[in-house]
Amino acid sequence: MCAQTENAAPEPDSETAVLSLDGLTKRYGDTVANGDVTFDVTAGEIFGYLGPNGAGKTTTIRLLLGLIKPTSGTAEVLGADIRDRRALTEAKANIGYLPDTLGFEDRLTGRQVLDHFARMRGDERRDELLDLFRPPLDKPVETYSSGNRRMLGIVQAFMHDPELVIMDEPTSGLDPLKQDRMHAFLEEERDAGKTIFLSSHILSEVQRVCDRVGIIREGKLVALEDIEVLLERGGKQVWVHLAEPVDSGQFTTDDMIDVEVVDSTVRFTYTGEYNELIAHLARFDIEDIGIGDPQLDDIFKHYYGDDATPGAE
Ligand SMILES: Nc1ncnc2c1ncn2[C@@H]1O[C@H](COP(=O)(O)OP(=O)(O)OP(=O)(O)O)[C@@H](O)[C@H]1O
Questions:
Q1: Ligand 1 proximal residues by C-beta, below 6 Å
Q2: Which of 4, 16, 115, 180 has most Cβ atoms within 10 angstroms of its Cβ?
Q3: Using an 8 Å Cβ cutoff, are 313 and 202 in contact?
């Protein structure tokens, strides 16, 4: 599959660009943590920033929040240039941030942590969020499970009702039920007009909640697509059970990838015209057939190759 770059991405509407990255580059010695990363995130979408460990996701997030400085290039966050410290500080009053590692003062209770953030930015949605996410507020944070730490982090990220929320691996440490609650919550926030930027190495999470995805590999943006387009480009997953065994040379066409033949069963990903597939299949004696949508992790493999380590769950 042909990887999309920023050049081929749909033109964003600059009026509604909440995040706008322009050649964002961060080098650490010889390591290019982010290399010329360019894309926009528009208002009211859940944008998934997908890549395996070390791809550069946290670096992008830290650059966007002004926690580190770019080597070159820049970005605008809610209209503020990240190199303009004062403008960025003002913009951050309207941003929620859930870091990958929550840097709370561990001896404080959850309530004290929230009080601290409330003094800085407000907390008009605190009670509503605590009803949903329920961290044990009167215990010191050092006694929290990783799931409860994340719950507290989510409450602090959203309680001042920000326009944009940036989340670094938001569901790590959450059990499946809490992950579901979190995903449903993010969808509600998006429907209410909020913009969510979340990084993830979990393909199923991005597939489930995100409207668009940027895939980052070794610091470079290798794809930028609507989830639906990405899934469409990934073709169809097909399996057929034939009346007689067949060898792969007899069956395979140029539009089939990842062909697997076991006796009389063939599985493959089909990327061509459907009429041609049907004409091709009509030459065989077929006993059963299944055609379905591909999983994002299959598509991901095409970007990353066979040595991909996407860490899919
Ligand atoms: N302060 C630093 N000094 C040197 N190298 C760094 C620093 N921070 C990040 N890197 C390197 O930059 C690259 C990108 O790291 P980054 O943490 O952004 O990746 P990531 O996609 O967020 O990965 P993970 O999911 O593991 O956090 C890695 O090779 C990392 O080792």
A1: 28, 31, 33, 51, 53-59, 100, 201
A2: 4
A3: yes
Query: Where do the DSSP E strands lie in 29-173?
Result: 31-42, 46-50, 72-77, 80-81, 95-98, 164-168
Tell me which CATH homologous superfamily contains domain 14-231. P-loop containing nucleotide triphosphate hydrolases (3.40.50.300)
For the chain, what is the mean pLDDT? 88
Distance 176 CA to ligand 1 centre (A): 27
Express each pLDDT in 147-167 by its tens digit: 899 999 999 999 999 999 999
Give residues with Cβ within 8 angstroms of 301, minimum separation 6: 308, 310
45-49, 106-110, 111-115, 294-298: least confident range: 294-298
What global pTM score does this model have? 0.80
Report the atom number in ligand 1 closest to the C-alpha of 68.
1
Fold of 235-293: Alpha-Beta Plaits (3.30.70)
Cα(24) to ligand 1 centroid in Å equals 15
